[in-house]
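Recall the central idea of this unit: under ordinary conditions, the amino acid sequence of a chain determines the structure it adopts. In this exercise we apply that idea directly, starting from the sequence alone.
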Amino acid sequence: MAFETIETGRGGVQAWECDENAHLNVQFYTARISEATAALAHEIGVGHPAIDRRRGLVALAHHGRYLKELRVGDITWTRSRVVEMRERGLVSHHEIVRGDEVVASFVALDGHWDYEGGAFVAWNEAERERAAALTSTLPAAAAPRSVTLEGTLATLRLERAVALGLAPIHRGWVQPWHCLADGTMAPQHVVSRISDGVPHLWDSLGLGRAQMLDQGRGSIVLESRFSYVRPVRAGDLLAGRSALVEVMGKTLRFNHFLFDARHGDVIGAGEAVVAILDLAARRIAGFTEAEQAMLAPHVKVLG
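Accordingly, the structure predicted from this sequence is:
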């Protein structure tokens, strides 16, 4: 029988992982996918950097589709497959499953990193053979829809983002406990700078988070992509800027950028398709005509 997936994670949703929308925050999806990728790497023969400091996988991009909400008490497991082996990296696919229902689907692009040489390196023959045994086709239903895995985002420096009027959503130092065993900031904590800061973007659009919650309205991410442009380490000072770039009926497209605040270089960039969530009915709610008119002047052209 042809290979499909292997189990790479198992656990449950905790209260402290959920946000003001009463569902699992996107940073904790990222944490689960990072752990699943490490488990898949182990099967290929690449060690975890905490144990094997020679080679490992470094996250380059994550694409996620959030199909169903996960809430406190939900129990889940993760299944994974290799989709494509590249010369110095791999593309993998991960599904978070509740019962027999897929609730989230992620495609990850990782580089094969040599810690001693400080460069991406090719796979050896044995690793390629093990990966081939774990490879299957990406299901059509898991393919990106409105956001691509490797599409081009606007190339910005911090000063340009400020000049364009992108909303400030984050400013803070990277702490040691945000970092992995190899000393670089964990993807979860990179993404958390966006997820924790995005209420500032909503506020800048005239949809204040406190007012929305009083009205029984929250927000939900439907699809996202984040590219990790360069490693971040403890002591780095980060600045986040975000923009509304498209209004699409019931959904909005946001672009997010994280910068080295001292030098202005971009360290990560992403985009997300988001919607208003009716917190009582737990379904997507549209924007009123007045809200659509209010949003239109805020759309930024970043190309």
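The longest strand covers residues 101-114.
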